[in-house]
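Technical note accompanying the year-one report. For the benefit of new consortium partners, we illustrate the data format agreed upon in the data management plan: each record pairs a sequence with a structure-token string. No post-processing was applied to the example shown here.
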Amino acid sequence: MPQLVARLSLPEAVALSLSIISPTLTAAFNITLVVQAAGPAAPLTFMIGTVAMTLVALAFIGASRRVAHAGSAYAYILHSFGSRAGFTAGWTILLTYLGFATGCAALVGSFTAAVLLRLGLDLGRGWIAIAAASMLAAWWLAFRDMRLAARLMLALEGLAVLAILALCVSILVHVQPGIETTRACFVPSGEFSGWTGIGFGMVFTVLSFAGFEGAATLGEETVNPRGNIPIAMLGTVLGAGAFFVFVAYCEIVGFGPGGAHALGASTAPLNELALRFGSQGLATALDLATAISAFSGVMGGLAAAARVLFALGRAGLAPTLGSVHAVHGTPSRAVSLAAAMIIGPFVIFAPWSGAEDYYSDASTIGTLALILIYIGVGGAEMLEGWRTRRRAWAALCAAGPLVLLWTLYHTIYPRPEYPNNLWPYVALAWVLASLGVIRLRPAVALAPLPDYR
């Protein structure tokens, strides 16, 4: 069976998970969604969300300590529920990474165009060409050298995070919030339905962590995967959680007393705060930082999708996808197909829907698929714990799926407005398509248990 070369270190595994999460995009978009639901208590909501997602992460951590495999959830679910369920899981998580990658590409174009506009150059629809170029650049990096791509992802995301932290420090220096202001950020707000508002806001905090498990797809390329992959996933969840809580607090403080409604309605909160507490130059730098973070997301999603395709191809979907490049040591054919699968939908839909809507639609579809995977992996690890008579571990792993079932319910009810009401059906259609693929390629339903490393 073709094997990838194990030459990646812990930081490079962290880079993949971090790039798919793209913390900068949460600072730019998701925090406002949480504020709409929970008001000034958004930091508390993110704090609770961090605990909930840590429970979800435990299932992936437990599974990754037993098996290191490029298919990640494919291998974990196959081990517990069989080849058919495993293939469906791999097919489903593939949609997640493709959706994240193609959606982030649109933001690369949009925010780069915004930076150039501030500098006096109006590109018009030129953002489309920039987005396409970002996908081609991501393909080239993922095709040739995963080490270089991972290090670049970590550096780019690090620069973006530092830019946001600089803004946060400026806010705190100017405002110097008191005890009452701080207390309001960590107590349910009666104006925003108290704990009910926090519960609804949890939907968006969970979505902010989507992709933390990306490091698991590097299981065959990471040195000491049973040690480094769990650390990468847990570190990503805890580090991102701390960042989300701090930035949400600073944005609430920056908009001032009674400013929660204004923050929730803002379409560019980082820009508004940069102009208020920094300068035009800082606002431009934050636009650039968001574009950089989005490019990191394109690379991360593409790299993870390629490894899932590699694992499925090796299992019988298409043997040619399960090949490893003789020089670069990457799943080069899988990388090229994944690149085509993110460029195709972009070319068809993005020019007509616009960058922000395309990102929202693609990432929503991907997240809905990922919630199903999180529930499946949690159920698989719960079963493993039960089989091995680790009752406490089984109960702990069951907590994550329960949280996610509640979250999934709130993503479909109350029924979203058009076209958002269509995306659950798109995700479901993709999942059901796996059954047709199994009929066409029956070998995938007979694939053996993945080799342990």
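Partners are asked to follow this layout when depositing records. The first helix runs from residue 10 to 21.
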